């Protein structure tokens, strides 16, 4: 972050030394959420089952810093200051778009390499319009929205004339990552896909850019974070290899609660019965369709009972931040043992 707090006095802390052999094995896969490529090799020793959510936004905002459409349209940029800074950052690149492709592929490669051959699920860009506008040259390409959280984001951008060429660069970076650098363990994930028709459009654009689902063992997942993803899970499963439940957005849109509102903080509850109904339902539908399904979020680490709920529902994987990994692994192990003791499915 850009802001921090400094407190007077000496902080109290406790050091724990853990033996990796003491971490229990589980049938449910426990994976990591990562954004910073520099952190990937810090956590390689954890016995994680791969990366359940690799956010490319960190690479774009920190290593690239430039709006992809500003690179595509570099010659026609009208902001002289932004154009000069972009020219400096991309020095040596005759094709400014290649800068984006190279930097994004290199950043994601560090994550893919740290966990190879385990799967690394890379979510395509999911900036909101106000966040995109903050990138160099971005203001000229982004609309002003009252509520970017449910605005022009995710899948809707990928086939839109406003961003289609930018998404093409993301696809080229993934193609380079998989086909040139050899990281076939990379899985692509589409965020905020509102309808089955939208899914078909996005998959079509991906295929046009050399990323066809099923070719070279490419798997494509979809974030399950909108009620329509649950309601039409059977239909979505015909177009994707798996789902990843985004519990924050799913909670927000199920309960009609702005997750950023302090006034409504007490109402934002991932364990609300309505949210749990959504999660239980989509897990069942995914299983019936033969699709993989996981969740990425903090709830399983913050609430052991939530990990138990997910295990009881039969979820395939749980993805958490690295500092929560051991606690979640233990919570999942206890939940699986309890399920087995109660006569549930065998736990491997």
Automatic annotation (TrEMBL):
Q: Which residues form the PEP-utilising enzyme C-terminal domain?
A: 23-335
Which parts of the chain are coiled coil? none
- Establish whether keyword Disulfide bond is in the entry: no
Enzyme's top EC category: transferase
Give EC number(s), comma-separated: 2.7.9.2
Annotated GO molecular function terms are: ATP binding; pyruvate, water dikinase activity
Question: One Pfam annotation, family name?
Answer: PEP-utilizers_C
Which InterPro entries does this one have?
A: PEP_synth, PEP_util_C, PEP_util_CS, Pyrv/PenolPyrv_kinase-like_dom, Pyrv_kinase-like_dom_sf
User: Which named protein is this?
Assistant: Phosphoenolpyruvate synthase
Q: Which UniProt keywords apply?
A: ATP-binding, Nucleotide-binding, Pyruvate, Transferase
Which family is this protein grouped under?
Answer: Belongs to the PEP-utilizing enzyme family.
Q: Give yes or no: UniProt keyword ATP-binding.
A: yes
Q: Which PANTHER family did the record assign?
A: PHOSPHOENOLPYRUVATE SYNTHASE
């Amino acid at each position: 972050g850009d802001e921090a707090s400094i407190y007077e006095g000496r902080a109290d802390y406790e050091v724990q030394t853990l033996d990796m052999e003491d971490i229990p094995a589980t049938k449910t896969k426990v994976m990591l959420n990562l954004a910073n490529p520099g952190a990937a090799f810090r956590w390689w020793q954890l016995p994680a089952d791969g990366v359940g959510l690799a956010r490319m936004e960190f690479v774009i905002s920190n290593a690239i810093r430039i709006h992809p459409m500003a690179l595509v349209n570099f010659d026609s940029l009208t902001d002289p200051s932004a154009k000069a800074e972009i020219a400096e950052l991309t020095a040596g690149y005759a094709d400014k778009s290649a800068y984006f492709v190279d930097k994004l592929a290199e950043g994601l490669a560090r994550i893919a390499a740290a966990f190879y051959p385990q799967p690394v699920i890379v979510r395509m860009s999911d900036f909101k319009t106000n966040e995109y506008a903050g990138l160099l040259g971005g203001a000229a390409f982004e609309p002003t929205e009252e509520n970017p959280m449910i605005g022009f984001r995710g899948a809707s951008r990928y086939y839109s004339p406003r961003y289609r060429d930018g998404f093409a660069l993301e696809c080229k970076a993934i193609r380079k990552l998989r086909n040139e650098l050899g990281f076939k363990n990379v899985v692509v994930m589409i965020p905020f896909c509102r309808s089955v028709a939208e899914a078909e459009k996005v998959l079509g654009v991906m295929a046009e850019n050399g990323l066809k689902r099923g070719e070279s063992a490419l798997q494509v997942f979809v974030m399950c974070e909108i009620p329509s993803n649950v309601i039409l899970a059977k239909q979505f499963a015909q177009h994707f290899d798996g789902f990843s439940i985004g519990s924050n957005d799913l909670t927000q849109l199920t309960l009609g609660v702005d997750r950023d509102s302090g006034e409504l903080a007490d109402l934002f509850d991932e364990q609300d019965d309505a949210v749990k109904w959504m999660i239980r339902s989509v897990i069942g539908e995914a299983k019936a369709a033969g699709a993989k399904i996981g969740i990425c979020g903090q709830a399983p680490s913050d609430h052991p009972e939530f990990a138990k709920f997910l295990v009881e529902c039969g979820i395939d994987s749980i993805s958490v931040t690295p500092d929560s990994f051991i606690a979640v692994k233990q919570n999942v192990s206890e939940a699986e043992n309890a399920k087995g003791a109660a006569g549930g499915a065998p736990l491997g």
